[in-house]
What we know:
The complex is a heterodimer of chains A (306) and B (331). Chain A is an alpha/beta fold. Helix content of chain A is 46%, strand content 11%. In chain A, the strands form 2 sheets. Chain A has a 7-stranded mixed β-sheet, with helices on both faces. A two-stranded antiparallel sheet of chain A has the order 6-7. The model of chain A has no long low-confidence stretch (mean pLDDT 96). Chain B contains 10 helices and 12 strands. Chain B has a 6-stranded parallel β-sheet with strand order 2-1-3-4-6-5, with helices on both faces. In chain B, strands 7-8-10-9-11-12 form a 6-stranded mixed β-sheet, with helices on both faces. In chain B, 52% of the residues are buried. The complex binds thiamine diphosphate and magnesium ion (MG). Thiamine diphosphate (TPP) binds next to strand 6 of chain A.
Amino acid sequence: xxxxxxxxxxxxxxxxxxxxxxxxxxxxxxxxxxxxxxxxxxxxxxxxxxxxxxxxxxxxxxxxxxxxxxxxxxxxxxxxxxxxxxxxxxxxxxxxxxxxxxxxxxxxxxxxxxxxxxxxxxxxxxxxxxxxxxxxxxxxxxxxxxxxxxxxxxxxxxxxxxxxxxxxxxxxxxxxxxxxxxxxxxxxxxxxxxxxxxxxxxxxxxxxxxxxxxxxxxxxxxxxxxxxxxxxxxxxxxxxxxxxxxxxxxxxxxxxxxxxxxxxxxxxxxxxxxxxxxxxxxxxxxxxxxxxxxxxxxxxxxxxxx
Amino acid sequence: xxxxxxxxxxxxxxxxxxxxxxxxxxxxxxxxxxxxxxxxxxxxxxxxxxxxxxxxxxxxxxxxxxxxxxxxxxxxxxxxxxxxxxxxxxxxxxxxxxxxxxxxxxxxxxxxxxxxxxxxxxxxxxxxxxxxxxxxxxxxxxxxxxxxxxxxxxxxxxxxxxxxxxxxxxxxxxxxxxxxxxxxxxxxxxxxxxxxxxxxxxxxxxxxxxxxxxxxxxxxxxxxxxxxxxxxxxxxxxxxxxxxxxxxxxxxxxxxxxxxxxxxxxxxxxxxxxxxxxxxxxxxxxxxxxxxxxxxxxxxxxxxxxxxxxxxxxxxxxxxxxxxxxxxxxx
Lengths: 306, 331
Ligand SMILES: Cc1ncc(C[n+]2csc(CCOP(=O)(O)OP(=O)(O)O)c2C)c(N)n1
Ligand SMILES: [Mg+2]
């Protein structure tokens, strides 16, 4: 049960972070934009908890807070980054979707990280390095040429990469089913890449399937693809009101909140304790970030030629 | 010892592969027996099979793949078969590579090399000098050797300068013999490096003992044409000119450049379009520091690059058109 508590804590940290961030944005206290992952936290935590964080590389996309927090458990440097503060992971140079920490890289061009992830995986193979590359992507990215080229490259060069598709069924306001021919499994099959799937947005199902896929990639030094059906409870970005989703759809998924599922297995007392603890951590992180100093403009001069 | 541009370049690549196991050549059709569309890599896959990665036609994909390899410490040299196709790599270069280098502050060895330019009747999508698309993009350095730099040495320097490099070759240069420095050439001119301390030097081509009436600034594949013009102006009009060639097209040392200009008239020459061109930036920067009697920019006409010889010669800056323009402008 201790384990479940820890999992719930990691999940709740992400949820609480994203909710707090929404509040700050709605009050106009943060510039720029952000993409929350409320409803999808289980994928980040199930995956990151089951990789080798020292050896593996992780590439992510615009919706990266969950991945980052699952890796670092550090809401302060992320909040500070998003607020453009000097103590942020990149001293505020990148904000919400441009993050790099050691082997973790994100970027704001949908699908653009996927060939890079393949190159990282190829480099691991060429250098005989242990570990694999975990590449997160969304269903929208599945229609970018980048991804189609990369699936082929990964397959022909037998590189140790695990593509992890977080299929929340929407790319911004576009319902992916309306703009996507065939289905993902058939596409993946045609590249001779093993396909794994989870349908219920449940931590333990995702964890189990992820472990299988991960083991395959690692032991075979070959790519695998895993699709997780999920749902984003929040808007695409800060001010999105989800007018393109039906109330029925939203309600159906709300009933299956993956965090509530885990919470049911924890005593009410313990759950509340975790929630209070996490809320305090997040609140303090945002407050500390908020009152911290902005970066000095000279920091951008490193790596900038004339 | 004379050597052609392509052999010198291939030697440079071979030396890199020999001395550094982390260097990889990546690209379409670069393996043997074909050896690349322009044969630059011919033979190398036989000598270093493990370090040549022949790719499918996926320029966005394998450029990104190269960037991923570079992030993990390898030294990829990606070949894009024709310079025109760099359009497919632009998102990776600008939105990924440059951002990893500048925003994420990662030292990265990444070279994208590609043959640029026309005059071969290849038509609108195989003749352009699209390096201009990268000019002015922070984090990207564009390097272009010419027949007076060793492209082999320059590619080596590019690999070891730990920053994103776009390396522009010129199709017409491949078969040309490299020219020596500090030696009288064709009984006419001397070539001297301007600032030998730089990784990517500028050179000056001067006619000894004559005060130049104009200074021509150029790069890459236009260097041989400019030298021809220099010779003809001397022979036919007794006009002396100096030529300054630049090999780092984007990080220009304007102080050295200014100091080395010995005439009061500056004319830039580039193969790509004059409109919004490289040359107009150069003369604009120069004239901000010092007044000149005359500055102008010569480049291609504002038009696609057509295929037929008469049409292509009409659009691109040929020896003839450059000669005529310079004469008109300095007389
Ligand atoms: C190349 C590119 N096109 C468009 C966008 C704008 N944009 C950002 S996220 C997004 C939707 C991405 O959908 P998906 O891949 O399913 O990820 P999700 O947002 O659902 O997590 C769009 C259109 C972008 N960032 N990059
Ligand atoms: Mg989506």
